[in-house]
Amino acid sequence: MTPIMDEASAFIQQCYQELNKSEAEIGTRLQQIKDELDTEGTYTHTTEELIFGAKLAWRNSNRCIGRLFWNSLNVFDEREAETEEEVFQALDRHLDFASNGGRIRPAITVFRPSQPGRPDIRLWNHQLIRYAGYVEDGRYKGDPHSVEFTRKCQELGWKGEGTDFDVLPFVVQIGDQPPELRELKTGLTLEVPLRHPEFDWFADLGLRWYGVPIISDMELKIGGISYKAAPFNGWYMETEIGARNLADENRYNLLPKVASCMGLDASRAATLWKDKALIELNIAVLHSFKEMGVSIVDHHTAAQQFRLFEENEKNADRNVTGDWTWLIPPVSPATTHIFHKEYDNTWKSTNYFYQDKPY
């Protein structure tokens, strides 16, 4: 068998067995795929296979602590989208559905796969919603992670307002055609102003973050088929925002500012001023999201949910793979059971993979 037939066979057998289909149905489907590969050089997933494959890829994602909810993923089949405008409209629908007035729904929108003789659809955005980053005279404004992509958007004619929280546009490219850019529609960007339950001054910092993390630059692979445009989302764990996006020195680097406002002694590391500021920053994120009714989970609850996922998989006679370095939360990891366990970091082939930037 060819490598793609090997992967297709393994996927179809797993998919059909978990969907309680018969051995005869498995055999028939594998013969259809073999015939398609012989004539076309590729094969096409049924809608049922696509839905199961996208969910399975989440269940297999070694770095995700939120896998308990893998089977609740809403899958939108947009393989018929041909033009940039059709892609933009599908992204709007995804964003509107996932946002859901704050009650975030996990979703993935799958565009056509890589196929012989057809140009790939690529999304230039790292996440569908992300803040711009600017650098001038060695000083950053906004999100330093976005500086390169922001420059590309500016080259395409986009102009930001130059604030710390300018929402970047969608950028879509089909094959070798010039990329097309479009601003997000008003009202589609769910944003949460950050406040603290005890510190009134916190609101004066003018901080905010977007409510739905939609990863849009990873490749979805299902049974040997590559989907290079398949944006997907769950909901935030508070440490992603409060301990990484806003706190990392190479991101918004807000710990010194928060510590200063708290009146902490930052003259030496031993005062643990970073730890104190970090905790309050995360408390503000949790408080603000919950106050506004936007779905979010704290890292202790997420770890408990992951323990339940592990139990479910054990009961189903499936092994849990995981990347320990990603599964442990960046705040108080030793207070979770994950810190005290080892995980098999083998990557299963139906999964989400990093891919080279299209620009």
Please tell me about this protein's structure.
With 359 residues, the protein is α+β, with helices and mostly antiparallel strands. 36% of the residues lie in helices and 15% in strands. The protein contains 10 helices and 16 strands. It has helices at 3-18, 23-40, 47-59, 84-99, 147-155, 238-245, 255-262, 273-292, 299-315, 324-327, and strands at 74-78, 107-111, 121-123, 133-136, 139-142, 170-174, 180-182, 191-193, 208-210, 214-215, 219-222, 225-227, 232-233, 236-237, 296-297, 351-353. The strands form 6 sheets. A 4-stranded mixed sheet has the order 1-2-13-10, with helices on both faces. Strand 6 (170-174) and strand 7 form a beta hairpin. Helix 6 crosses helix 8 (273-292). The model has no long low-confidence stretch (mean pLDDT 97).
Write a concise keyword list for the protein shown above.
359 residues, four-stranded mixed sheet, 10 helices, 36% helix, three-stranded antiparallel sheet, alpha+beta
Write the layout of secondary structure elements.
Layout (H helix, E strand, L loop, with lengths): L2 H16 L4 H18 L6 H13 L14 E5 L5 H16 L7 E5 L9 E3 L9 E4 L2 E4 L4 H9 L14 E5 L5 E3 L8 E3 L14 E3 L3 E2 L3 E4 L2 E3 L4 E2 L2 E2 H8 L9 H8 L10 H20 L3 E2 L1 H17 L8 H4 L23 E3 L6
Parallel strand pairs: 1-2, 14-15
Antiparallel strand pairs: 2-13, 3-6, 4-5, 6-7, 8-9, 10-13, 11-12, 11-16
